[in-house]
């Protein structure tokens, strides 16, 4: 572990070796500045994945160290090493950058790990909690080493795996039984890759894999995706780490709600799926109707706050009738109506009538208002028509259908009727 820490310091300050060599004042100042910045900045780093090694089986039939000596006491009676006092075997793994020819010395660039004491000279570890997918007890005696990886996984790597004997009588970290040097490549995934080693002292079977941490994806475990359903997004993650928006949400971060179908894209918006809120100046269920100028009566708009008057209407608020004659027909007794200005009119009266609306009779009978030969009789306020037989109505223009045949009045005897126009 000390070698790992030392290497990490080298990575953070790659010019430190030059500092120690040249001892220049300028470089010392730079080093102090770098250290100060590192102390101020937060040091939390999320691991991208984990390198896993599992010891499956090892066999050291004679109980030898790499030197050819016994791990513990030498036996008497023809056996070189005691069968009662066997090796206390454990393993140490050093993971580093890819090397064509692996060097066992030097820092463990990517990290290191150690098992607990797994057994004596030979041991099979399949019974210690492993299943087809791996994973067993985590007390150090299952032969499992996990090395967290804090950067994008480079796929290619070199591994120095050492089988060691633990000696209670010394302070040494362990006496070397066998050293395995491996350069290989691993793609992230759940599948294990099995390796076998047959050395002069020890035979070994182990397996390796690299798994992305939770929420990390991709061939280098450097694509981050964490499912969420909150203000910052509404999505899950597929197997490649791409965001899959929940129903009703869209956009790169799945933060944009899908509005009600038909909601105007420019004039409407929504904060939750299925909604359709209108921007200022627009209205309607789909926000496709503009709001007219306040007080607009007989007008419409194509843009907010307009008041485009309907036909025959005018004025700022479209409340002035430009066709008062056609709308109200104010002229009576056959008078002709003329629109003069908004909400104003003038009547040209028939002969014998006067007044603003031709409603005052002067000589009503001059215009011969009575039809079908009726007799017109004037009075101080109006006139009346004395109808001949077979005709009726105010101006004797209606047939008297009491004697009609096929819709026409028939001749009948009798006196005419008199109608007064009021």
Automatic annotation (TrEMBL):
Keyword annotations of the record: Developmental protein, Differentiation, Disulfide bond, EGF-like domain, Glycoprotein, Membrane, Repeat, Signal, Transmembrane, Transmembrane helix
Record bears the keyword ATP-binding: no
Covalent S-S links between cysteines: 212-221, 225-237, 245-254, 278-287, 349-358, 387-396
InterPro entries for the chain: DSL (IPR001774), EGF (IPR000742), EGF-like_Ca-bd_dom (IPR001881), Notch_Cell-Fate_Det (IPR051022), Notch_ligand_N (IPR011651)
Segments forming domain EGF-like: 255-288, 321-359, 361-397
Gene3D superfamilies, alphabetized: 2.10.25.140, 2.60.40.3510, Laminin
Domain DSL: 210-254
Domain of life: Eukaryota
Principal place of residence: membrane
Membrane topology recorded in Swiss-Prot or TrEMBL: Single-pass type I membrane protein
Location in the cell: Membrane
Coiled-coil zones: none
Pfam families, alphabetized: DSL, EGF, EGF_DL_JAG, MNNL
BP GO terms, sorted: animal organ development; cell differentiation; Notch signaling pathway; system development
Example of a GO cellular component annotation carried by this entry: membrane
GO molecular function: calcium ion binding
Function: Putative Notch ligand involved in the mediation of Notch signaling.
Protein name (database record): Delta-like protein
